[in-house]
Amino acid sequence: MALRVYKPGQGYWTRVLTAVCIGVLVLAAAAWAWEQAGTIRLPAKSHNIAVRAISGDLAVGDRVSYMRLSDDIDAPLVTLGEGLVESVLVGNDRSGTVVVGTFTNDDVRDNFGRASRLTGEGFGAQIASASANPVFPRNYLQASAAGLMLVAGFVLIYWFAGLGRKSNEFLIATDGEMKKVNWSTKREIIGSTWVVIISAFLVSGILYSIDMLFQMFFQAIGVLET
To answer: Quick one: which of 26, 27, 138, 221 has the most CB atoms within 10 Å?
Structure first.
């Protein structure tokens, strides 16, 4: 089924070029939406925590606490949140990676750099680094935002340059006025270009001559010294 177009065939190029210009703006808007969506903080489904100096044992299903040092050195560790262990991978050097489900406090992610230990019943380890796994890939959100912008842009282009009565009457009238323009011939353009070039050199020469005359005059009366 073909899309309906208001007065098809009239004002063709004006409408086409208008659609192209709007399309460029829509593409720029879609790129902006992609970038902005990439900054949105998504809920975490789990956290990858690299640990070292492991003491004790840890198993899937154990509850662990994410802790950091207090600002007061003499104060005990501060618990940031708790979660259940989803997987454990420990190496021979007492280091490894622990995947923990969503913590009870989502603000944990804002303190990854300050957190110092992962503890559980009979388990303890220093935290080397940590990162959150979002509930779904971030590029899904970015693609959705950019796609919505493109769809909205297509609807706008179709309405403005294809379907809208007032907008298309304006574009058709513009196309008619453009056809009335008396374009210069190649010979006229070349002649006008030479006139501009010669005039520019003449004005430059006159200004240079006046400047030199003033310079000689002021040197003669002792205002300027060489």
So the answer is: 26
